[in-house]
Amino acid sequence: MGTDADDHIPYYKRVVLKLSGEALKGDYSYGISHSVIDDIAVEIRALHDLDVEVAVVIGGGNFFRGAGGDQLGIDRAAADYMGMLATVINGIALQDALGKKGLDVRLVSALEIKEVAEPFINKKVRHHLANKRVVIFAAGTGNPYFTTDTAAALRAIEIKADLFLKATMVDGAYADDPKKVKNLAKFNHITYDEVIARELKVLDATAVTLCKENNLHIKIFNVTEKGNIVKAVTDKNIGTSISAEADGGNHD
Questions:
Q1: Distance separating alpha carbons of residues 127 and 134, to the nearest angstrom
Q2: HSE (CB half, 13 Å, CA atoms) of 119?
Q3: Does the pLDDT value for residue 227 go beyond 80?
């Protein structure tokens, strides 16, 4: 839902925010930082107060990553299920943090864990969002071999979101890793096809393809900068936008 409004008016009505588990650990080597998850909850509350419908897809890499199961001699499918359970832990923590900010929150799991989470029912989730509840998606797609990026793209398409927000530790998409290669220019805007052709690592290729096929706008932004969750929805100059049409390949 685009508009020519100022920075305090959202450009989108319904968004899916993909949060990595690593974003929750802060300075810790693993686990959850109270200050980080509290800051994220404050920002989600601020976005909610702007009348934006918010769903969050949460990762589990701060506890366990399925792709790392090989190092432990664990079968990939089993490791992926372990990773899905890690996302449920994070989902419970985020639900608690958001609840303490006065938000009505529903944790929805792709794996059946009825004691702590609802099953994913598309119509019910959309009802929650329309009634100003924040929804947290956990356990990915419920299937091994799929990333949480792909789960986020899938859920965003299913619930008819206007924007897929990919929260990262850098301020957008680059041609290479800006932490390893100096003086790289950030893409302000890039097309789905360019992301795939350049094999950019900011987003899983399957997720990008899903977004392309369904014309879902993606924005990559730095979640470690306070206020950026709101700015990613209200300020078109934040991060990197990914969509169907190029704008001349502008960079910062």
A1: 11
A2: 3
A3: yes
At position 44, the amino acid (one-letter code) is I
**pLDDT for the residue numbered 252:** 42
pLDDT of residue 174: 92
Most confident of 4-18, 62-76, 222-236: 222-236
Pairing of strands 105-109, 118-119: parallel
Please state, in angstroms and rounded to a whole number, the distance separating the CA atoms of residues 46 and 91.
19
Confidence (pTM):
0.91
* Structural contact between residues 97 and 41, judged by C-beta atoms closer than 8 angstroms: yes
Q: Has residue 249 been placed in a domain?
A: no
At 57-77, the pLDDT tens digits run: 999 999 987 666 777 889 999
CA 174, distance to chain mean position in Å, is: 18
**Pick from 126, 117, 1: nearest CA to 55:** 126
Give the long-range contacts of residues 243-249, CB within 8 A, separation 24 or more: 243/189, 243/191, 243/192, 243/215, 243/217, 243/218, 244/191, 244/192, 244/212, 244/215, 245/191, 246/189, 246/190, 246/191, 246/194, 247/188, 247/189, 249/187, 249/189, 249/190
The number of folded domains in the chain is: 1
What's the domain range around 145? Answer: 14-243
Query: What's the CA gap between 138 and 92, in Å, rounded?
Result: 9
CATH of the domain at 214: 3.40.1160.10
For residue 6, is it within any domain?
A: no
Pairing label, strands 217-222, 240-243: antiparallel
- The DSSP result for 10-32, as a single string, is -S-SEEEEEE-THHHHTTSSSS-
Task: Collapse the DSSP code of 241 into the 3-class scheme (helix H, G, I; strand E, B; otherwise coil) and give the result.
Answer: strand
Burial classification of residue 56, based on how many CB atoms lie within 10 Å of its CB (0-12 exposed, 13-18 middle, 19 or more buried): buried
